[in-house]
Amino acid sequence: MEGERCSFFSWKYGHYFEFLSTKDLNIKVRCTLCVGEKVLSTFKNTTSNLKKHLESQHSTVKLTERVPPSGPKQRAVTSAEGPTPPKQQKLDFGAKPVSDEELKKLVAQYIVEEMLPINTVDSPSFRAIIKKIPTSVNAKLPHRTTFTSYLEKEFTEMERNLKATLNEIDFVSTTADIWTANNRSYMGVMLHWISRTTLERHKVALACRRIRGRHTYDVIGTEIENIHSSYGLLNKVVATVTDNGSNFVKAFQVYHPVMESDDETEEEESSPKDDDVTFSDLSEILSAENESDGQLSLPPHRRCASHTINIICTRDVEKHLTTNAESRAVYRSSTAKCIALWTKSSRSTLASETVEEISKRKLLIPTSTRWNSFFDAVKRIAEIPVGELNTLCTKLGLKCFKDQEYQFLHEYCMAMKPVTAALDILQGDYDLSRMTAGLPDAIVQAIQTRFAGVLDDKDALLAAASCPKFKLRWLRDAGRRERVKQLLTAECCTTAPLAKNPASVPSATTSSSQGEMDFFTFEAEPEEETYSAEKEVMDYLMSGYDLQILHKFSSIKTIFLKYNTPTPSSAPVERLFSLGGLVLTPKRNRLSDKRLLLMRYNHWFTRSTLLFPP
């Protein structure tokens, strides 16, 4: 009982109660503040009943807490204020104070990740917060000028680290685009590669540079080559992906070196005789070399597939619908009414509330640069029942949709949806009316026309065949499947390292160090099994579909890394510009802001390791 009494009276308000008795898990006490004999009951391990009694019956009494034997002075708490709030936990920054270098890194991480101006470090309120962090004796947050120098040093370290990583990578690709904001133009370049060990794709922001003057093909070509050469990438970039802009296309047409055909090469190699002697003018050779030194050399060009599909879904589809007599009128009238709905709801808050009230959803407003936004916006309207849709148009003072127009919207979404999911679904059967009956065929024809250079491109065929997920399964024609198989076999013969073919490497018995002792060698050493490209291709085609099986086929793995490194879209560099909108503003156009953008995209200060994966 004594132990129970001691446990009870350790409560901070226990001195207001007199212990009477205990039974099982209950304790009976008497309140000393009540007039008369007021007996209360509570559990041994809780005092909630007693606390409620004090709050309800003695709310006007100024209660004091029990003072521990060696604790601070009593603190008065008025019960009318409610329950005593829990003590605020103190910030714990670890046992060790933050050093000067750690403090700068933490602040740099905050500035870069949140895309804040560098002069934030001069803000008195920000510096007041930083002062609350326990630091070492000499640790002090620098001001803007010194902190800018620190960021410049970190940017240089990031570049050095990236260059060291690129020295260990054989194949890379880049995506490039030009972005204009606030009457200034910038070229952004992203770098992509596939890790040889993990087969995972990696990307980093390589550059964001100001472009002055007109965006002509020669300016674009010069800037791209300068960016590539600054990182030592001239012989490593397997392709550069851009949009279909005429200036980008012309730059690569002019400055990409055209390789001679195999026939021309064979003729040149077979024309001179073994005993023929050819004399050349030395001055002509030197002048030709000087001219070639000044000539730009760009990697192969790949057009952005997303941008190409966007053109198909806008220009080609609109051309088909407007030239077809069955669909011309209904296409124009239905889209005009959709545009009127989008315009009304986006410019009037009352109209927007009316749309949400009737249809229980908001309309999506399409943007001019993305076709899928137009598709999503039309689909949202087509999902509204025709009765509700016409009620909405009536309340907004717009023309109602006719049954034929509403049906056209549904058929348009039905025919265009496969483009956003999978192109082969276009081969399926659809129950379409005469208005849109020819639309799937028109889309297929547009795809075959605009992707004609890709469907039979050697690099694209090798990229698909060397990917375990596809191999040759996507080829329906047996003859074409055999041609791609032969193409893969020939590429394996070219890619196979010399170490796989011992016949091409001199053996120890024929080396010059043996000298005349070779004369007494009577038995030939057993030769190792020579490399067979046909066997590797057959084993690969009979293996599984997991990406990691490439580690078993070194030549095909090299082919995969080389031809799958280019990305099908230039969207990554557009995401860089999305971040750039937060930095490249009229008040923030210094060089440090552009470097801050690159460090933010690469997450330089928040990476688990400050080493880029090779």
UniProtKB/TrEMBL annotation:
GO molecular function, one term: DNA binding
InterPro entries: RNaseH-like_sf, Znf_BED
Highest taxon listed in the record's lineage: Eukaryota
Start and end residues of each BED-type domain: 15-59
Bilayer-crossing regions: none
UniProt-recorded name of the protein: BED-type domain-containing protein
Residue ranges of the region described as Disordered: 54-94
One of the Pfam families matching this protein, by short name: zf-BED
Organism: Maylandia zebra
Record's keyword terms, sorted: Metal-binding, Zinc, Zinc-finger
